[in-house]
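anyone seen this seq b4? input:
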Amino acid sequence: MKKIIAVVLVLVAGAAFLMVQASNDDQNNSSETQKDKFRFSLDWVPNTNHTGVYVAQANGYYDEENIELEILPNPNANPTDGLLLEDKADAAIGFTEGVTTAAASDSPITSIAAVISTNTSALAVRASDNIDSLAELDGKTFGGFGADFEAAAMKAVIKNDGGKGDFKSAVVSTGPMEALETGNVDFVWIFEGWDGLKAKRDGFDVKLFPVKEHGLPDYYTPNIVATPAKIESNPDLLKRFMRATQKGYQFAIDNPDQAAKILIDNTDKGTFEDEGLVYDSQKYLTDKYAHADKPWGFQKAELWQNYPQFMVRSGAILDTAGKPVASIDNSKLYTNQFVE
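predicted toks r here
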């Protein structure tokens, strides 16, 4: 009888152990599948500036970092600073101009990675206008978005080429290239690796003047940005997000055609009217994403010194009272702490 009782007790104890173990396994599995949500805002419709993020999501790099990524669309190109400051996004695509402008306010934004290692923007004019120098833009009409830094930059590059920097401005309601093609404006500021290539593919003959070759200091644009508050409160999440994102952009560097296909396949059908443009743009950016001697995303101090200081000297950076600032702390505009 004692033996029977002993056997029963052993069986009961064993069953209890298995139940506890199963419960622990369920809890472990639940904890493994519970991912940290991360909201990432685009600056515009999806394009090759964003490829690394889409690649990282499609290839499971965010899953490896226990992150559930939500890509927030921005078809109206609304400034992403507001979303960050209102905590409606954890990080976003931003620009050096926005970061520098925010530094003079009570709501700073910090660049945590350079999407492209050099400025690929250019002024575009119609080839039929036979403009050979930016000095010839005096008296012409610039089509932009009405930002203070635009006027300062346009004046600088025109004067650099021997002009007076005296031009008219118009805020475009369509895309800049559409306004240029229809003749509503005479020159616009575009990204060569997208709008410039698109014009060529569309048969719209334009002449491009890269701004870094005509008087503007080189700078990073676009950037991945976050608030100092987010950096301080959750550096681990940002570190994991950036580790996955860095892998995505490195994949795009090494495999431009595959990366272009991933971008096309993982955006809404019809996002790209001309899918060939995506492949052309991806190849164009391959050797521009990262510095030759640094990993993707790394930001050099001099690029965060020269152009922001130009903006300050030009009076394009205003304080909360609307007055031009005399200086800003460039060291607070960016950080490399999340780039490996």
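The chain has 13 helices and ten strands. The first strand starts at residue 36 and ends at 41. kinda curious what u guys think
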